[in-house]
What we know:
alpha/beta
Amino acid sequence: MREPNCNRKRNILMIDDDEDLSFIICEMLESYGYYAACARNAEEAFEMLAAQTWHLILLDINLPETTGFELCRELRKVSNVPVIFASARVSEDDRITGFDIGGDDYLPKPYSMKELLSRVNALLRRAYGAAEEEQSVCFGRICANLISQTVTRDKQTVPLSLRETDLLFYLCRHKNTPIPKETLLSEVWGAFSTVEPSTLTVHIRWLREKLEENPAKPQYIKTVFKVGYMLEVSE
Length: 235
């Protein structure tokens, strides 16, 4: 029997122009509870990175019209999303370059599905492990379950939009830590999203209206002067 996957609902983007391989990898990842999608080139990748939140990227180096190295350099300007380079280029110089520009792991092709899954699981544990070990973050009458991605007040479900949910759970995973507005926009709306900062302000207000006892004087979703926002929770 397959063990339950605590990282389910994590979004994984594979950037590789090998369509057959990408299909097989995405099918395998989805069979283990992840959401997986593929971009065949940098243009498609930028569009998908701007459209939604991704929790891990599998990145080939040899891409049409550019390289995975260049794409990673651009990505690191706006996001710290974990990146695994998966490439047939296996020289020491290529591996060093991959790590130097912000890659988190380097997997040479050809690789086994078992090893890829193991590395994906390990990197997600390192990146989000603290959040996964703690199943829920509760404050006041609100409880946010980090595993099932549900929010309740007095055990009754609180209806949140998809973006409100993403925003709240990002704050939950980094509770008691001031998060810059730029980071929230990048990590919640997408690395290359062009949404205005006012969009974040509006979503914070909506969250407060749904979760705070007095939205005008929030106890938990705090504004951090000249920084951004923070979910303040008693330890």
